[in-house]
Design a protein that fits this description.
alpha+beta, Thrombin, subunit H, 12 strands, 6-stranded antiparallel beta barrel
Length: 285
């Protein structure tokens, strides 16, 4: 019985001890177990750390991409704002260039002897008490030297005359209004007549042309200088139709205005200077 117990005690305690001492001695001499443990531990550590490092790297990449996207979005927003600002600036510069071109075309008009000219901007059409009339509203008034019946023109032709003037604004009666009468003469035939408006989009009547007076189709009509309003020689209209009736002593003549006032943005207002003298009411041809 004692031998049986000793045998089990030897197997359970002494044999592992001898094995441990043997392995310890062997490892002390060779270092094999240390190398194995180090290698195994590195593998274990490596396999434990590698997934964490991979996850950390992926998380870092995702974060960097998110930050990059946020910064890119901010940059894009700034670029969009700059683009919108540049678009608005381009629109402003284009409008300014158009205005400069308009001003340049107005200033190209040859000086009229005895008259000064200054520019005005059209800011409205047919407003206020004169809305029933064919008028435009300009941004010049008595403070700028504007007064009733001053001629209003463009380089292309007559627009009308000042109807009323306040301190800083004026209304202009257009040549297309039925109340507008302009003494004219044929530039080639030198026949005198009076144009009268018939409303927007309608031809101008050319009245008081006797049947025996010469007048040519497509002839240019210019101001005659009578009535002491318009200087002589300003282009007004071009003859479009001539009819002769046995029942009338006058020709029926229609003409097309050279200027469409409702498409204008700027005009010139003419003002007599100190060197000019009022024209006589009647002049010889």
């Amino acid at each position: 019985m004692f031998r049986f117990k000793f045998k089990y005690i030897f197997i359970a305690f002494l044999l592992p001890l001898f094995l441990y001492l043997g392995l310890y001695t062997w490892n002390w001499r060779t270092g094999a177990l240390d190398d194995l443990a180090a290698s195994t531990g590195m593998e274990i550590v490596g396999w434990v750390l590698a997934p964490g490092k991979w996850a950390d790297r992926k998380a870092g990449l995702l974060w960097n991409r998110y930050v990059s996207l946020v910064e890119t979005e901010k940059e894009n927003a700034l670029l969009r704002e700059e683009l919108e600002a540049l678009k608005l600036e381009l629109i402003r510069l284009r409008e300014q260039a158009a205005e400069q071109q308009l001003l340049a075309s107005l200033l190209e008009l040859s000086p009229l002897d005895g008259w000064d000219a200054f520019g005005a901007r059209i800011i409205a059409h047919q407003i206020g008490p004169n809305a029933v009339l064919q008028t435009v509203f300009i941004n010049k008034g008595r403070a700028d030297g504007v007064s009733r019946d001053q001629p209003v023109i463009t380089p292309d032709g007559v627009v009308g005359r000042v109807l009323k003037a306040s301190s800083h604004f004026s209304s202009v009666l257009l040549l297309t209004d039925p109340n507008s009468y302009i003494p004219v003469l044929g530039q080639k035939s030198r026949t005198r007549a009076i144009t009268r408006g018939q409303g927007r989009g309608e031809p101008l009547q050319v009245n008081h042309v006797p049947k025996n007076e010469l007048l040519f189709s497509e002839e240019l009509l210019v101001t005659s200088g009578l009535a002491d309003i318009y200087p002589k020689g300003l282009p007004v209209a071009r003859i479009t139709r001539i009819e002769i009736s046995e029942l009338s002593l006058f020709k029926k003549v229609l003409s097309g205005a050279l200027v469409d006032p409702f498409r204008l943005e700027g005009v010139l207002v003419l003002q007599r200077n100190e060197r000019s003298e009022p024209l006589p009411l009647q002049q010889e041809r």
